Amino acid sequence: MAITRDKKQTLVAELTDLLTNAKGTAFAHYAGLTVSDLQDLRKAAREAGVVIKVVKNRLVRVALAEVKTYKDTETTPLVGQLVYAISADDEVAPAQVLNTFSKQNPSLVLAGGFSGEGALLSAEDVKSLAGLPSKNQLIAEVVAQLLSPVHDTVNALSGNLHGLLDGIEAKATN
User: Fold this and answer.
1) Do 119 and 141 have their domain in common?
2) Is pLDDT above 70 for 160?
């Protein structure tokens, strides 16, 4: 069933808005997935703050051309049935969502992506990106590293205090 011109314009406007604010985009071939599989993918993506779109590649090309960042980006890899994962918050999340889902569903094959700066990413780049920790994980690791000396100092001082208190208690009971 063909979609109307108005519906196409609405889809392009929605995609343009998503891509304008996108920090990361990944896309994958989804031929062979069932509707239930796609619903599971959408659910996993929603939990990660990622938007999943299944749109004709021609409409995606039109939307990319309207976004200043992606105006000169190569679009030749946009062929076949593709599902697009877009995140406005995290550069790594779209790649991680698609990569994780592809491990459970071999019918989903990573095809590439776009960086927030407008660069085209290969499937290997997207897989590498998916292996990185998320932004929140990195922040937590940095905070843990910064607090490590504080925890070490507190533990050392509390050990000395416990020893002192044990000595005083032993002296008091004698």
Assistant:
1) no
2) no
Q: How many CA atoms lie within 13 A of 44 on its CB side?
A: 18
Instruction: Write out pLDDT tens, residues 86-95.
Output: 999 888 999 9
Residue 19 half-sphere exposure toward CB, CA atoms < 13 A: 28
Question: Whole domain around residue 36: which residue ranges?
Answer: 5-132
- 167 shares its domain with 122: no
Specify burial of residue 53 (Cβ count, 10 A radius: 0-12, 13-18, 19+).
buried
User: Residues 44-63: what's their mean pLDDT?
Assistant: 93
Please check whether residues 137 and 126 belong to one and the same domain.
no
pLDDT at 144: 81
Q: What is the pLDDT of residue 161?
A: 67
Q: Are residues 57 and 127 in the same domain?
A: yes
The DSSP H or E segment spanning 28 is strand 24-29
Considering its fold, how many domains does the chain have in total?
A: 2
Instruction: Say if residue 75 is in the same domain as residue 137.
Output: no
Task: Summarize the confidence of residues 8-16 as an average pLDDT.
Answer: 91
**118 in Cβ contact with 69 (< 8 Å):** yes
Q: What are phi and psi of 57, to 5 degrees?
A: -60, -35
Whether residue 126 is found in the same domain as residue 56: yes
The secondary structure of 44-103, three-state, reads HHHHCCCEEECCCHHHHHHHHHHCHHHCCCCCCCCCCCEEEEEECCCCCHHHHHHHHHHH
